[in-house]
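Researcher: Next entry in the queue.
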Amino acid sequence: MITSNECKLTHETVCVPVQIPETVQEQSVELDYVLPDYFPDFFRLVHCEAEPAILQWECHEGMLSYVVCVRLRIWYCSEQSAAIQCVNQRLEYTKQLPLPADCDCTSIGVRLTPVTAYLNCRAVNPRRMDVRGAVRITARLTAETNKPILCDVTGLHTRCRKEAITYLSRVIRTQKLCSLTEEFTLEETRSPMLALLRDTVQVSITETRCVAGKLVVKGEALIRLLYTAEGGPETMQYAVPFSQIVEPEGLEDTMHCHTHAEAVSMTVHTEADANGDIRLLRCELQLRLLCEAMAASMAEPVVDLYSTMHPAAVQTETIPLRGLPVPVQENLRCGMRMARPDTVIHQVYAMWAEPRELRVTADPAAQQMLLLGELQYYVLAADESGEPFMLHETEQLSMPLTMPYTCGRSLMGAPMVQIMNCSYHLSAADTVSVQAELQISGQCTGEQLHTLAVDAQIDGQQRLSHDDRYALRLYFGQEQESLWEIAKGFHTSVEAIREENDCPEDTLAAPQMLLIPIVL
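Model: Structure for this entry, 520 residues:
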């Protein structure tokens, strides 16, 4: 066979995404709870909810380990009062997920999305509650590996066909936990707080900027509170801006950067003022910043080859390559009517909506992007007697989006869906019309499949047989036939065919007779 000085094969490596299937795990939630002595007896259940969150995760020795925290809230009324009592409990569970063998644990991208699968609450007796349910955690993992490909072959009369590509060549991932503490004071126009019923936070990133090898991340945490007051439940919200510096190792100022923020935990402490009224609030918030920095490269790898003098064989593989992500943002409105027959809705205290496994996905058949999943609506209201009750409905969503279609085999790093605002109005005595404003923001990255050469063999000890009686041969080419394939079939060169014929393009525009020179 050939020696290295006769034929030189040059390889380079490209960054190839590792295909990791989406994984769903389920964790049962069970609580047998006895009311403390200072709580009134249980008489009527108003609402029960579970709010799951991922406290921490790490990849080590082929395993993804994470801790999921479930905050349980149980609202009930006693027999003597219509005031809502709230039971808060916090449960933690540790889970593990095996990683594919070819995953590099130091650079894997992790997106864990926990949702409540179901939840049931019943009173065993006036002092004891039994809660049973489950939390579903969806794991979307991304990782890369290096794949060697042929970028050039020289010697032994070799002809190479190359393809110019731009691909994602480097990915840096890092995360940072940050803590925020903010104090609020209820306005004098508001009634003092009696008890906190519900506290949620929504985090959004407003800016990610690379400066001198560091990431400057700015955003806002929107805190929403629902609490009981003398006149009934009330709502309030506060915006807490933040700015953080993240220092990923190896970051370059020219890289494309993106940050996704998650709320890890939030604790609201209440304090009474000099009059004994609860008007002072201190919020302790922990956020997780997930940062990605990406760089793209250009290359001209070999996609096919042959020798005009010697037998040659080329090994090709279909390799998925990613390009730089495309930022996307789109706003939508959803809504529905929620009714409680045979009940006059006297007052609405609060309304909110929660996404349930909402995701953006590509529909190759329709060549468009879709929003799929569920949106759950909740309304806390009261009837004419002042008794509180909950309305709960689920809307199935399958909505086409106007954002550009991300072509390719799959959609990586799909954007997040957040509920920016909720509104309602009484459309009938027993009906509430609700509306939610959704914002889809983030980035999309499509995968493209490329057939590239990874290795080749050229037998320099054997020569192809040529009929030396002819310097030219005639060949009738077909429309759209490739000059490369014609040259390869006759063991000549594309340049030689172009010199003898009027063929400026890579394919024939129409059927024509060609003079095929024999290259020796």
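Model: Helices lie at 483-490, 494-500.
Researcher: Noted, moving on.
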